[in-house]
Specification:
The protein has helices at residues 11-20, 38-43, 79-100, 121-138, 176-186, 206-211; strands at 2-6, 27-32, 47-50, 66-69, 104-108, 143-149, 151-153, 160-164, 173-175, 195-201, 204-205. It is of the alpha/beta class. It has a nine-stranded mixed beta sheet, sandwiched between helices. A two-stranded parallel ribbon has the order 7-9. This is NAD-dependent dehydratase.
Length: 213
């Protein structure tokens, strides 16, 4: 399976590539904005593709069979950049996938994106962008999975999560590595197809937790 990772040079994106590339049935392609990032993608086992979410992405999705959107400006950037990447960039990639007949799309979202009006300041704008991208994907007709993690940490992977349509995310966290594993495993996990769910660190092995979604 040819799979494209948007946001490939980000911390989570690199982890996704590293995990998926261990599977001989996966040909992993990492979307990068700068040529100097190509070597990192290769070292992780992926194939670099030069493309920018703020520009045309049609060529980047050629011959792909699945897409993972793990790009993000983050809540600390200005609102213009957040809109350009988290909202419009994601929407552009969804539309390109539909245009090219790519049916499978996995979106890295965030808890709170279902109710962005409850957030404040820059976080509210960030969650509004995520909300709009999620809704566009759900309405696209593609086979989607939308994963909404709680606060991310750089801790070592635990390999165990709690996943539900809605979780209590107060003071909860999850290692980025576990989020990357969830996204990677969701690609072919039929129990996650056309589902939106939230995740945090928990007691169930990731594979089992996703089976029970």
């Amino acid at each position: 399976m040819n799979i494209l990772i948007a946001g490939a040079n980000g911390t989570t994106g690199r982890m996704i590539i590293e995990e998926l590339s261990k599977n001989p049935e996966m040909n992993v392609y990492g979307m990068i904005r700068k040529e100097e990032q190509a070597q990192t993608i290769k070292e992780l086992g992926g194939h670099p593709i030069l493309a920018d979410l703020e520009e045309n992405v049609d060529k980047a999705v050629d011959n792909m069979e699945a897409i993972i959107f793990a790009a993000g400006s983050g809540p600390k950037t200005g609102p213009d950049k957040t809109t350009a990447v988290d909202k419009l960039g994601a929407i552009k990639l969804v539309d390109a996938a539909k245009k090219k007949g790519i049916d499978r799309f996995i979106m890295l979202s965030s808890v709170g994106s279902d109710t962005p009006e409850q957030a404040q300041g820059g976080m509210r704008h960030y969650l509004e962008a995520k909300h709009d991208a999620d809704e566009h994907l759900k309405a696209s007709g593609l086979t989607y999975t939308i994963v909404r993690p709680v606060a991310l940490t750089n801790d070592q992977a635990l390999g165990k999560i709690f996943a539900e349509q809605k979780v209590d995310h107060t003071n909860k966290s999850i290692p980025r590595a576990d989020v990357a594993s969830v996204l990677a495993q969701a690609v072919t996990k039929e129990s996650t197809f056309n589902k939106t769910f939230e995740i945090l660190s928990g007691d169930l092995p990731i594979k089992e937790a996703l089976t029970d979604i």
